[in-house]
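User: I'm preparing a small set of examples for a lab meeting where we compare how different chains pack in three dimensions. I only have the primary sequence for this one, and I'd like the structure in token form so I can line it up with the others. Please keep the answer compact; I'll paste it straight into my notes.
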Amino acid sequence: MEFMTENEYISQYFAMLEAECKARVLSQPAPADGKSYCAPKLDHWMGCWNYTEAGTRATEPCPPIPGFDYLQNATFDCRENGTWYVNPATGREYADYSACFNFENAIKEMDKDVIHIYVTIALFCLSFVMISISLVIFFKFRQLRCDRITIHKNLFISYLLTDLFYLVYLSVIHFAEDVVLHNPDWCQFLHVITQYAIVCNFAWMFCEGLYLHTVMMSAFTSGKSVIIACLIIGWGVPVPLTIIYGAVRASLKDNIIACWSSESSFLWIMYAPVVLSMAINVVFVVNIMRLLITKLRQIPEVAQTSFISIHRKAVRATAILIPLLGLQFLIFIKRPEDKDSTLSTIYQYVLAIFVPLQGAFVSIMYCFCNGEVLSLLKRKWNQHNAMLPGKRKRAQSTSATQYTIVDPMSQVQTSVT
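Assistant: Understood. Below is the structure token output for the 417-residue chain.
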């Protein structure tokens, strides 16, 4: 899910004021009463100063940005000759914002925002690297080619694209202020393609639940048909949602600002299906847990244990599906309304950790800690060591006296842990 920090609020606020000032003040004709007026002006703080009668002082509320006291007013003197006051030290027109500044709060807010941004970017980079390594492993070894791993590979690719586009978009929003203020078309497209990657990511989380539920419910379902359905859902369904969202938002002039970094109710065009998919995944998990309990009761060794023990085993087995299916994001659907509250701060930082690290969590659980992957990597490593010159010679000298006895029954695992 997308979230905004203070810097994004500032960018949005400045862009909104610029558009509003042009429409409300700068495009209006001067008063026709014969008096002398200072011309309307948009200053560097985006203060919109209207026509002001010569010899008077104009006042505007302080902008609600970090470090400013928005209950105070800024002032701008219109001199007797109908020109704005000029600061002798700089030779430039000068509006007095001294009453607005609260330097202690400004430093705190800037430090908090900068830390938040860099932590988020660092975690996205970490996730990107881990997902990349996981994909190399999945694609390199033929032994890992199966329907289940195919679903995993597509999910991991969606994570990779999400991390990549979000990193670029986040960097533009926070470190390219001119781009945000001028709002070029490519920046708006970057926002849209980032949203597409996010929705694809959640679509593949849904596909993970759909595939697992289908396999457990029907052993006779064709794996190929499920894969085709998942490809359509994972990469195809988000396309019309993205097109509709982009077209609707682009058609509204008041939303074509700040690279669309502000929150918009139109995001629900894309996120409503995401929430629905997560709700269905909850149903999948509950049903999978019910099936596990049924199967566990059919195992003689487990059937003799207590009712609580059986359910504990089923809950433990299904709990690992929560990050894979993205169910933890259900608690982040509603943002605290008061963005200055402690709860909102906690929400921002928890979200800043969970969103970037989601891909890292999944790669650890389903690749780096996967028994099948670890066994394969260990076997390849042993083969590599065996091919080294010194070890190859020792292996050849003892090969004639080595025998391997395989007990067929040892390959069947009947215990449940």
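A couple of notes for your slides: The radius of gyration is 30 Å. The beta strands are 37-38, 41-42, 48-49, 52-53, 57-61, 73-77, 86-87, 92-93.

User: Perfect, thanks.
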